[in-house]
Write a structure and sequence with these properties.
With 716 residues, the chain is α+β, with helices and mostly antiparallel strands. Among the domains are: 83 residues, no CATH class; 186 residues, no CATH class; 93 residues, no CATH class. The protein contains 19 helices and 15 strands. It is flat and about 90 Å long. The N terminus and C terminus are likely disordered.
Length: 716
């Protein structure tokens, strides 16, 4: 900023600071910034350019303020229409045929580096594998039409109504993206698209249309053959309506759409096809203002990859072109070179085998005759190799544990979660933005979007835990939680009442406002004077169901009616004669009472009986069960249960190997740790089956616990 114009400033100050007769008692305020005029220096007369603001009066000459001052900037020489040019591109940029001609590295070099370095290729394929297994669906953008479901499960509760027209459009979009190019399925199509994004950052789709102009297929083009064309402002030329009354050469009539070339496909070294912005979806991910083409992760680590390749060549030369022998063996002092050569030939012939000549021992004259000198083997892997691996993994936000020395479990889990957040999620967002744009522009459905389902990662478990926390705070109700889980709501009105978890149990949020004291509860947190059935319905904490099961489970010290008498199995102090609601507390006849079954083994017998565990550990796994199930058929030997068994068996192998535990040495504490790992597993096969078991445990508890001691469920 330059010095202020003294003449203008003083005038404004005088007008502001001098009070009039009407302003005698009013305070004077300092000048605001907009009241002060600035200039670099006095402008020469007539130095104003067309379209520019008139020059200010400038600093008075000779006042001293302009002594060695900055002076006025040179007048622009470009016409005013050039304003907004993106960057200073070379003159005649579009005349160059080769794509990426003004970039330091070409497309073919990037692909060569990505294919030559095996570690880099493994990382790219790993990220593609992670994206391939992501499940998705199309849903309305309006959250009131389709509430988000935990774990991607469709809800059957409230707020999921969608009209027939929207349902048809959703079905059409999902059907299209099952095979976007009409032949290749989504997963394979996506892998090819991600390849060009990760390696050359030039993912390109050709919009194949019907005669009526509707999108028929999204065909992938080799992004390395696409040369970008720029307009006068350095941007991609966009379609426009022809404003000229007489048609121009190559353009339509007045008011018609004109589609200028935005891309050229270069084949055989020559420009083959022109494409407009409507024909091509060109989607670089990492765009920079001073470059026309994207900046891929491979290009970002080009120097590291170059070093790694040269190191691998050195390692390869060690096994192919090495000149250092394994050992040097001395010979008597008087031997001539010819004698040494003769004996060397004899030795090589005598002991020839699979080793090449370079690996054979050599005879040399001198003092070494008294002993054999072993040459030192160079290190083939050291900390520098791990450093290279970490840089490669960091560029793609892939956990480096598999390529470096072992680290503790907490650090590995933390790095995995961080890598997923930094790498996988941005990639998913890139794909989502691309698909959302296609849905909005090609299917005329801006009210629809692609969403990723989170069954294959830990987000579902985190979301459920967060939902349970809100449940305890009274922010949501039990039916809202069930709706998010994709379950039918409870008919009991208590399930629609928000409750807060206190030290004495759950209480309605309006309890204090209505004068109801939270202290009118028994030692277990249940309000006095209510039936046990109502209390169970009011009890909304899913993680507290174990407390209910323990309270109403089998207790040999608690008096109950003998089993051969009427009402056998009932407790004498639950729903007794003093309970006025006993008659209305009949159990749901749709859920059978199961007296002795104990439910689902978290580690099934087919797994732990075939292992070399101690009898104590086997007994522990046998007792580690879910508890009674409302529907015992979920625990039958179904295809889903067999898949669960295989997944748990694999998880057990991984657990033993990771913690360096021999089967016969496993302790009870380690067995309990593994059971908890099964319950909280992120494996979608295990997690889905565990959640199904937990639902049936909850259903059974809410129906039967108030009346009888526990039992139930078929054993596996």
């Amino acid at each position: 900023m330059s010095a202020p114009n003294r003449t203008t400033t003083s005038t404004v100050a005088d007008q502001t600071a001098q009070p009039t007769s009407q302003q005698t008692s009013q305070p004077s305020w300092p000048l605001s910034p907009y009241q002060v005029q600035m200039s670099y220096a006095a402008s020469p007369s007539g130095a104003q350019s067309p379209g520019q603001s008139p020059p200010s009066a400038g600093i008075a000459r000779g006042s001293g303020a302009d002594w060695f001052g900055p002076l006025n900037p040179l007048n622009p020489i470009a016409p005013p229409d050039i304003a907004g040019r993106r960057f200073d591109f070379p003159v005649g940029y579009n005349l160059v045929i080769r794509p990426r001609a003004y970039e330091p590295v070409g497309f073919h070099e990037l692909r060569a580096f990505a294919d030559a370095y095996d570690l880099l290729r493994l990382v790219i394929e790993t990220r593609k594998d992670q994206m391939e297994r992501q499940r998705w669906r199309i849903r309305p953008r309006d959250p009131h039409l389709s509430l988000p479901r935990l774990g991607g499960r469709e809800g059957r509760g409230r707020g999921a109504a969608i009209d027939a027209d929207m349902s048809a459009r959703i079905a059409a979009v999902e059907r299209f993206f099952q095979k976007p190019d009409g032949v290749t399925r989504w997963k394979t199509w996506l892998r090819s698209l991600l390849e060009d994004m990760f390696v050359i950052d030039a993912a390109t789709l050709y919009c194949q249309r019907t005669r009526s102009g509707q999108l028929f297929a999204l065909q992938q083009l080799d992004g390395a053959t696409i040369k970008r064309v720029i307009d006068d402002w350095g941007r991609t030329p966009q379609p426009y309506r022809n404003p000229n009354p007489p048609p121009l050469v190559g353009e339509g009539g007045e008011g018609e759409w004109v589609f200028p070339p935005a891309y050229q496909q270069v084949l055989k070294g020559l420009p083959a096809v022109n494409y407009s912005a409507r024909d091509i979806i060109y989607r670089p991910r990492n765009v920079r203002a001073h470059r026309v083409y994207g900046y891929s992760p491979v290009q970002q680590i080009l120097m590291t990859v170059n070093i790694a390749l040269r190191r691998q060549l050195w390692q390869l030369d060690y096994f192919t072109e090495g000149s250092i022998p394994d050992a040097l063996i001395g010979v008597p002092q008087g031997w001539t070179p010819d004698q040494i050569k003769q004996f060397q030939d004899y030795w090589d012939t005598e002991f020839s085998g699979d080793l090449a000549k370079r690996r054979r021992a050599k005879f040399v004259p001198g003092d070494t005759a008294a002993k054999v000198v072993q040459t030192k083997e160079p290190q083939h892997k050291d900390d520098f190799d791990e450093w290279l691996a970490r840089i490669i993994c960091f560029a793609f936000s892939v956990p480096p544990q598999w390529a470096v020395k072992a680290m503790n479990r907490a650090t590995a889990d933390n790095q995995s979660a961080q890598a997923e957040e930094e790498g996988l999620e941005p990639t998913k967002e890139w794909v989502k933005d691309l698909v959302d744009e296609i849905i909005a522009e090609e299917f005329a459905s801006p009210d629809l979007e692609l969403v990723w389902l989170n069954e294959d990662d830990n987000d579902s478990g985190k979301a459920e835990a967060a939902f349970e926390t809100r449940l305890k705070l009274g922010a949501v109700t039990l039916n809202e939680l069930r709706d998010a889980l994709g379950l039918d709501p409870y008919a009991n009105p208590a399930a629609d009442r928000p409750m807060v978890l206190t030290a004495t149990g759950y209480v309605p949020i309006e309890a204090n406002a209505s004068g109801t004291s939270a202290d009118t509860k028994d030692q277990d947190g249940f309000a006095i004077g209510k039936s046990k059935r109502d209390l169970i319905s009011d009890f909304t904490g899913l993680d507290e169901i174990a407390t209910i099961l323990r309270k109403y489970g089998y207790n040999s010290e608690e008096p109950r009616i003998p089993k051969h008498h009427n009402g056998g199995g009932e407790w004498t102090n639950v729903a007794g004669s003093d309970d006025p609601n006993k008659a209305s507390d009949a159990p749901d006849p749709g859920i059978p009472f199961q007296r002795y079954g104990r439910g689902h083994h978290w580690v099934t017998k087919k797994i732990f009986t075939k292992r070399k565990f101690s009898n104590e550990v086997k007994a522990f796994f046998d007792k580690a069960r879910s508890g009674p199930l409302a529907d015992s058929t979920v625990n039958h030997n179904t295809k889903e249960h067999r898949a669960y068994n295989d997944a748990v068996n694999d998880l057990l192998d991984e657990f033993l190997k990771k913690n360096n535990i021999a089967e016969e040495k496993m302790t009870l504490a380690q067995a309990d740790e593994f059971v908890q790992e099964v319950k909280n597993s992120a494996n979608p096969v295990i997690r889905e089956f565990v959640m199904k078991i937990n639902r049936e445990v909850l259903r059974y508890g809410l129906r039967w616990i108030p009346w009888r001691r526990g039992g139930g469920g078929g054993d596996d």
